[in-house]
Specification:
Helix content: 10-25%
Largest sheet: 2 strands, parallel
Distance between the termini: 23 Å
Number of strands: 6
Strand order of the largest sheet: 1-2
Shape: globular
Organism: Opuntia streptacantha (Prickly pear cactus)
Protein name: FAD-binding PCMH-type domain-containing protein
CATH class: Alpha Beta
InterPro entries: FAD-bd_PCMH, FAD-bd_PCMH-like_sf, FAD-bd_PCMH_sub1, FAD-bd_PCMH_sub2, Oxid_FAD_bind_N
Number of helices: 4
Pfam families: FAD_binding_4
CATH topology: Uridine Diphospho-n-acetylenolpyruvylglucosamine Reductase, domain 3
CATH architecture: 2-Layer Sandwich
Strand content: 15-25%
Domain FAD-binding PCMH-type: 1-135
Structural class: alpha+beta
Radius of gyration: 16 Å
Number of domains: 1
Length: 135
């Protein structure tokens, strides 16, 4: 991911991200109005889900789906869940970065409201997390 960000910036190629493919506007797959060249970074194989019931946290990769997260939580607990929606094929990267509207919104807020840390690559190619950003 870091190499793709740095390389696309150096070559002036737009970078589009695909987490689960539920992009109804087509911005992940179609050229913009100016037909600027772009490449798609597909997170389909970045699907690790690690559940820690003891401290009630999970780490997920951007390509994991809502359904995969539900399944991994259910393997470890019958009382824990995640404020996701009913579309289990949604990629978590896009779902959470879009806010994460779901059926448990009224009780638990948006999915993004429940994020306590994340590892991401910024537009300069730096890998950041909560600690690296000063918290």
């Amino acid at each position: 991911v870091q190499a793709a960000v740095i390389c696309s910036k150096q070559l002036s190629v737009h970078l589009r991200l695909r987490s689960g493919g539920h992009d109804f506007e087509g911005v992940s797959y179609a050229a913009t109005v100016d037909d600027h060249p772009f490449m798609v970074l597909d997170f389909q194989r970045f699907r690790s889900v690690s559940v820690n019931i003891e401290d009630e946290t999970v780490w997920v990769e951007a390509g994991a789906t809502v359904g995969e997260l539900y399944y991994k939580i259910a393997e470890k607990s019958n009382v824990h869940s995640f404020p996701g929606g009913v579309a289990t094929s949604l990629g978590l990267g896009g779902y959470i970065s879009g806010g994460g509207y779901g059926s448990m919104l009224r009780k638990y807020g948006l999915a993004v409201d429940n994020v306590i840390d994340a590892r991401l690559v910024d537009s300069e190619g730096r890998v950041l997390d909560r600690k690296a950003m000063g918290e």
